[in-house]
Design a protein that fits this description.
The complex is a heterodimer. Chain A is mainly α. Chain A has six helices and no strands. Chain A has a domain at 1-80: Up-down Bundle (Four Helix Bundle (Hemerythrin (Met), subunit A)). The radius of gyration of chain A is 21 Å and the shape is extended. Chain B has helices at residues 4-24, 28-50, 58-88. Chain B is an all-alpha fold. In chain B, helix 1 (4-24) runs antiparallel to helix 2 (28-50) and helix 2 packs antiparallel against helix 3 (58-88). Classes of the chains: A mainly alpha, B mainly alpha. At the A-B interface, helix 1, helix 2, helix 3, helix 4 and helix 5 of A face helix 1, helix 2 and helix 3 of B.
Chain lengths: 165, 101
């Protein structure tokens, strides 16, 4: 129980660090830690396979992609211009409105059922695989086509001379 | 006791943080980082709701598809950002205001 509060605090804290750090490389590294806390959340929610997928896809692939592009653009220094005061003022007003709305909604919040383990094997890869290949077969195949399309598109876009394509 | 609401609150906080990054940062890659945070908050909500669907595993299956979509979109978006930087020498989204080259 206390693990959840600790991990929730860590994820929100590192997400705040992600958006308030000036250096983009540090920001992306904080994002890695945020995604790791998401992995711990998934384990707490009994989704073991999703935890492994999150670990591999986000902390492996996407982070390497982000860091490579940042290094390629050579923007790992303070190049971000300062925001104007009007934008900051608008941001503060919008954030306070969101906070008031959240506080008002917490007053009406019902206590939901505690998260109980109906079936502790729910997140294992064998059960999830059976569901993926029976109920979700069509979305599964379409997502494979989507991945192929994204790969072809990314390679075409990132080629040296886009005008010759 | 940890209820569904706790996970939903964490997801809402992370979604708001990602929204701030999308609205306020002047760097296209940081905007993309904000979008990733928002997608992850949504996936966390899906997994949390999936606890109540023990027959069809709908939450976890859709979370898996959402992760696939996020990975594909990040790859394409980073390629687009590379192209934009090559053409404009900047990735500030406010400076990129010509539709045709």
């Amino acid at each position: 129980m206390s693990v959840f509060y600790f991990v929730a605090f860590l994820s929100i804290f590192f997400a705040l660090m992600t958006i308030f750090t000036k250096n983009p490389v540090h920001s992306v590294l904080y994002l890695v830690i945020t995604f790791f806390t998401f992995t711990v959340h998934y384990i707490l929610l009994n989704a073991q396979f999703l935890a492994v997928v999150n670990f591999i896809v986000y902390m492996g692939a996407i982070m390497v992609l982000f860091l490579f592009v940042l290094m390629l653009l050579n923007l790992n220094k303070d190049t971000e211009p300062l925001k104007s005061n009007l934008v900051k003022f608008m941001g503060v007003i919008a954030g306070m409105c969101l906070l008031v709305t959240l506080a008002a909604s917490f007053r009406l919040l019902q206590i939901s059922d505690p998260v109980v383990l109906k079936n502790p094997d729910i997140g294992l890869v064998s059960n999830l695989g059976k569901v993926l290949f029976s109920d979700f077969l069509l979305p599964f195949e379409i997502s494979s086509i989507l991945l192929l399309t994204a790969m072809v598109g990314a390679v075409l876009l990132a080629k040296n001379d886009p005008k010759k394509v | 006791m940890i209820t569904l609401t706790h996970f939903l609150i964490v997801g809402a906080c992370l979604f708001s943080i990602g929204l701030y990054a999308v609205m306020a940062r002047r760097n296209a890659i940081m905007v993309l980082v904000g979008i990733e945070l928002m997608i992850n908050a949504a996936v966390l909500n899906l997994v949390a709701f999936g606890r109540y669907d023990s027959e069809h595993y709908g939450g976890q299956a859709f979370a898996l598809f959402a992760i696939v979509l996020a990975a594909a979109s990040v790859a394409v978006a980073l390629a687009i950002i590379l192209n934009v930087y090559r053409h404009y020498k900047t990735i500030n989204p406010e400076d990129i205001n010509h539709l045709k080259d």
